[in-house]
């Protein structure tokens, strides 16, 4: 694979820059550049037509210095070990930046779930757990849903694990259906986490948010909650939102709940009464206090970055800003809350699920939200302090905080 | 009496009884005795000679010679006696019935074969025949077939392709049944059209009159109550109002046809039906009562295989509520709408494209009680849609193409046959009914049906309502069958009937409907049976209500005839490639494309007003005419042919019918995933016109899309037609040879290998640039 597009090579390069800035010990740096453990398994699965199909699968436990590995399981036809390695590395930094006692991991099965029946999916899920059970567990590695895996698949996996162990282990996997030990508050966790850090960011930079404007690019599951919670928690006024078919704009404000209801009924935002239409590009360039890019990767690029007029860009999507655009936004004084901090609410509530499973005591929704607020607030404060101390952007600061925390754990354990 | 024959007193009584029975049909005496004799001969009991010999013995020579009448009378009586002695009363009744049948049949044959016989006489003769009880000794198969064909030809359709199938399944009694539910003009002959009969034919294939019915189908298959209004009624209407000029409309040029079409509507508005016909309508409406109706076009040309006229002719829903006078007015309005569509620009251009213009097209109307029931103010069936015996869109290799596919919707099936947004019908591949292309809850929700087509009985109109507003109208079983519930990302069907379904968390997945009702296996079996009987893949419209499956329409499916493998060149230089694609492919090779019309999806998405978007649609239509004799490809945003301007360029068949390729480009940020159009009327049009639809996903990994070429090449729009210059930002016309040093676009699509490419290549030698597909 061309190294420029190899996701693991990119992840290593990102680490290299941070290591240099931190003056990381070479051995420690080298340790963090590689997964600590990789497992590759081959899974024979009986198909509905009686044939047997062989699937290849991975689990990467990137670093477990801060706790058991944590990360999703992807089912994708183009899955590669390098993609899984890179994502496992990013999980390591993400759990570290929000300071939850977990390491980073990721798994994948090379398969096309669109071609599998429900029973084939179940057999594949169970086969994966049978092959990896010895390496999983609440004290070793806790998977979760990811690309093309669902709460139902998590439920099958948990069941298979418990059958093998002969005892109850709900916390072996998160993202389960609520009826099987899933946590309250998962639905809006990612957006809620982002809203909390946006609140902290505004306070840190002396910005008043009440009555100010926000725009949401990507009014899907996450974006919709960002708009609703932005209104509810921060008192922001939604002025524009968009989905894949374009957006709506009303400088006087759009009722986020009415818009969510309209989208539910009509499948699109366009045509929402009392709002003008606008394109996704136009939305990005609106003069608003907070912009939530919640849709896709690489939408803020060097071409449009000079035209962005938001004060805070809170990255709900993964990788919405290219590195060139990021530099431009920094130069222009736009505060970018980086994705792996802004959208860490999801993994945090995943961790809460595991904690509740372990205690066999389940929290009320308010308790989940209160604890999430505390975690996200504290995470942001650490990043802010790092940013101010080292005079770096929040993105760089987040990396510095994360890598420093993992490095410290490695050192304390006496690994290096 | 010759005692050697052994006849008893009881035989004499039986012979008398037989004679009394025969005397009820004195005109059939000779025929009955002919049958008696042949039966006696076949059974080896007595032949003509035996009887003669007995007669001779009864009148020995030397005695006084009987008169010929006496001799005949004696012979006949003896024959009756023999028959009464040797056969049961049941056989006797059957033989007399056969004589009556033969007679009625002969009369039917006679009226059918006499030129110029009035339809009413044929109907009367058929009715007399059909009034005879069924069963007994059958008529000669050859003769029966001849009469069936003549009846089909006279009353239903003269199209040979239709007759060829129908004669094997539709009996004389079926024709009589159809006629007993049909309405005719006293002044004009006419037919009821094969489309109307197609529904009946499908039912006969599935529920044969003389064979036991498939036990799987029997409990569920039902026929919608249908009535047939012959083409003579609308011809008579045209006569009565002197609207003869309508028929020459088709020879005018396109602009005039379009201009005249609105005026036609005004003329029709003022025109009226003859009083006797109105009385018939009134009696009909009185009979059917206040039940919603659909008026379906059934034109004579629609019966041709290969010409589906999909959506060209109108179908009109009527709520049919209120006082009779009001319902009558609505009914006549509906008939006029159907008639008007015969002369619509889209229908005439379609006929022009398929060389069907000179045919004297006539329109009959199939009126059906809409399948469904009242739910709150609305009337609709639980589910409906369209099913195809071939799945031309197997999005996974495990899907069996020959087991068919269903486009399924909640409510009226209009949402499945039209390309209307928002939301999507559920595609059910019948070989793997539970397989769907989405995995995660949010994707499943995104690609699910959002609106439901219904009849609002209170407002007396057709409406599309959000499914959220129908949750209270559906019963527990229907909710259980149609919906899945999303709980924090876990999308699952309800666990039990009566489980609360909250609108914000639910979406239409038909999970339990497909997994727990016989619908999918039933539909698969039906499609297999219909395809076998038609000898051709079929396309079926259906509705499902209260555990019953109604076949509403059945016709041959439009297919690409050329499904052979497409050969790709070994190496195509990357700088010559305009695009690559790997989804929704149809085997085809189109060469020598000279013009590319590109509607820039990003530019189109930015157009702020409906007017500006309509202007783009008009420009596309105009270019279609200007490039009529050129080889051109049309590319633009998904979805072409939508009737929702928010979702794509709202064009119809007539606006794009000259292009060779219709490409849909789906940029991720502007609306990924062009809807699978397969199964819509629009798609059928493309197939028949041999226009290749293709979908391009520029943002997918490893796909090539040279947007720079399309946006950077010289735009010839203003040269072609200066008045379209205001659209030049969005609509671009590229002359390929001028922009590529003499190269033409070639497009290859291989559905098996799942790869497609459009690239520039020198023109082929010999000037001709190959066929369409």
Short description, anyone?
Chain A has 416 residues and is of the alpha/beta class. Chain B is α+β, with helices and mostly antiparallel strands and 773 residues long. The C terminus of chain B is likely disordered.
How would you portray this structure in words?
In chain A, a hairpin with a 5-residue loop joins β1 (37-46) and β2 (52-63). Chain A folds into two domains: 7-12 and 34-168, Leucine Dehydrogenase, chain A, domain 1 (Rossmann fold), CATH 3.40.50.10860; 189-342, NAD(P)-binding Rossmann-like Domain (Rossmann fold), CATH 3.40.50. Chain A contains 14 helices and twelve strands. In chain A, strands 9-8-7-6-10-11-12 form a seven-stranded mixed β-sheet, with helices on both faces. A five-stranded mixed β-sheet of chain A has the order 1-2-4-3-5, sandwiched between helices. In chain A, α4 crosses α5 (151-165) and α6 packs across α7. With 416 residues, chain A is α/β, with parallel strands linked by helices. Chain A has helices at 7-22, 26-32, 81-97, 118-132, 151-165, 189-204, 221-234, 256-266, 280-284, 323-331, 339-342, 345-359, 365-390, 394-412, and strands spanning 37-46, 52-63, 69-76, 104-110, 141-145, 213-217, 237-243, 246-249, 276-278, 290-293, 312-314, 335-337. Chain B is α+β, with helices and mostly antiparallel strands. Chain B is elongated. The chains are: A alpha/beta (416), B alpha+beta (773). Chains A and B meet through α8 and α9 of A and α17, β15, α21 and α24 of B.
- Taking strands numbered 1, 2, ... along the chain, how are they ordered across the largest sheet of chain A? 9-8-7-6-10-11-12
Instruction: Indicate the multimeric state.
Output: heterodimer
Order of helices and strands of chain A: HHEEEHEHEHHEHEEHEHEEHEHHHH
Mean pLDDT of chain A: 93
**Low-confidence runs of at least 5 consecutive residues of chain A:** none
CATH class of the largest domain in chain B: Alpha Beta
Overall, the morphology of chain B is elongated
Strands of chain A, total number: 12
Count of folded domains of chain B: 4
Number of helices of chain A: 14
Distance between the termini of chain A: 31 Å
Total beta strands of chain B: 27
CATH superfamily of the largest domain in chain B: ATP-grasp fold, A domain
Strand order of the largest sheet of chain B: 2-18-17-9-10-11
Class derived from helix and strand content of chain A: alpha/beta
Name the CATH class of the largest domain in chain A: Alpha Beta
